[in-house]
Design a protein that fits this description.
This protein is 43% helix and 23% strand. It folds into 4 domains: 1-36, no CATH class; 38-172, no CATH class; 201-311, no CATH class; 324-357. Helix 1 crosses helix 2 and helix 5 (112-125) packs across helix 7. The protein is an alpha+beta fold. It has helices at 2-19, 26-33, 81-85, 92-103, 112-125, 128-132, 136-151, 167-172, 185-188, 203-212, 251-260, 313-356, and strands at residues 40-49, 54-63, 68-77, 108-109, 157-165, 217-223, 231-232, 241-245, 272-281, 288-295, 298-304, 309-310. It has a 5-stranded antiparallel beta sheet, sandwiched between helices. It has a 5-stranded mixed beta barrel with strand order 6-8-9-10-11, surrounded by 4 helices.
Length: 357
């Protein structure tokens, strides 16, 4: 009988915890408590930076339903032991417990900064669609790049595994789940980021209103043009990542830019990555209207009236690679020129020595 009471009490506790993450929906809470509703993807990773004699591990919990990062836990150490000993293919609870155990060792270092860096990079890279698809191959490449960027080492390498779970399980494991950064934005700001404009009562107007009603805020944005290597805007598809400039200067746009740390040395905004949510042919011109998700609940509305070529995340990477490759020949020619001059100098000295002797 005591065991039955304990089981009932435990079940009630699980449902009570689940209610916090299902907006009070009892039916969903029961599904979550029973393990049938999984809103979290756990990314388990470890890394090593050989040239710095450092290693570490992390676990990131991504809410794939509401698209925000619930929590990030990590550890770093001043040796390569963490990388060699931790096993990413353990279930996430065991992996988390191992990270906690290693955090108490003498050679571990404060990883709060790493937590923040990982979170910022994941938001910038917009990992949510691939986390939803459980696209481990792509996410592994993304995190390899992130670790290289954070530690500024091309020799850094990482391994990643992915596992489904839910917010209740993460909470009951004693992990503090963070509130999305923009979740309370409406309470802080009494007005919308952009002024509400009267929309003509047409099918086109209703379509735009329907799209914008899904967002907490809609801010003005524009595409980054790339006339030579860019992608024709007519070929851009829903779900594609494009480079977006937020130029309106309103409080919400400024907060998004600051969240991405997308400012130059003078504090001017830099382009950020947005994921295309909707594409609507513009009935008033030959162009299109794009809606790009730039942060949780925030759409950038981009009106392009001409068939331009724009910079996507893919073309940005190609452009960066091409620029590097174009710079190399100049360096190669300089090296060849130095070698030729050096050879001529040696031959001149040999000839001079021969004539004198």
């Amino acid at each position: 009988m005591p065991e039955a009471r304990e089981s009932i009490s435990e079940k009630a506790k699980r449902i009570e915890t689940a209610l916090k993450y299902t907006n009070g929906d009892m039916e969903k809470a029961k599904f979550m408590a029973g393990g049938k509703l999984q809103d979290i993807v756990a990314l388990k990773g470890k890394f090593v930076v050989p040239d710095q004699n450092r290693s570490g591990a992390f676990i990131a919990f991504i809410n794939v339903v509401q698209e925000y990062i619930s929590a990030v836990v990590s550890i770093t150490s001043n040796n390569t032991t963490t990388y060699t000993r931790l096993r990413i293919f353990d279930n996430w609870k065991s992996f988390y417990n191992n990270i906690n155990a290693y955090s108490k060792s003498e050679d571990s270092t404060n990883s709060q900064e790493l937590n923040e860096q990982l979170m910022t990079k994941m938001i910038q890279r917009d990992v949510f669609p691939d986390a939803q698809k459980m696209n481990l191959e792509y996410l592994s490449t993304v995190f390899q790049d992130i670790i290289k960027e954070i530690f500024q080492s091309e020799k850094a390498k990482s391994q990643l595994d992915i596992e489904k779970t839910n917010s209740m399980e993460v909470d009951l494991a004693g992990i503090s789940i963070m509130v999305p950064e923009f979740e309370t934005e409406k309470e802080e700001s009494p007005t919308e980021a952009t002024e509400e404009k009267s929309v003509p009562d047409t099918a086109f107007g209703k379509r735009l209103s329907e799209i914008e009603s899904k967002a907490s805020f809609v801010v003005e944005g524009c595409c980054v043009l790339s006339p030579v290597r860019g992608k024709p805007i007519s070929e851009v598809t829903v779900g594609e990542r494009i480079m977006v400039s937020l130029t309106a200067g309103d409080p919400v746009s400024e907060k998004v830019i600051d969240a991405y740390k997308a400012r130059d040395h003078e504090g001017k905004p830099l382009p950020i990555i947005g994921r295309v949510i909707e594409i609507v042919p513009n009935e008033q011109s030959k162009g299109v209207i794009l809606y790009a998700l730039v942060a949780k609940g925030i759409y950038a509305k981009i009106v392009e009236e001409e068939p331009v070529r724009i910079q996507t995340e893919a073309t940005q990477l190609i452009n960066s690679t091409t620029e590097i490759q174009e710079e190399k020949p100049a360096g190669d020619w300089l090296t060849i020129l130095i070698v030729i001059v050096f050879v001529i100098l040696i031959l001149s000295l040999v000839i001079l020595f021969y004539v004198i002797s």
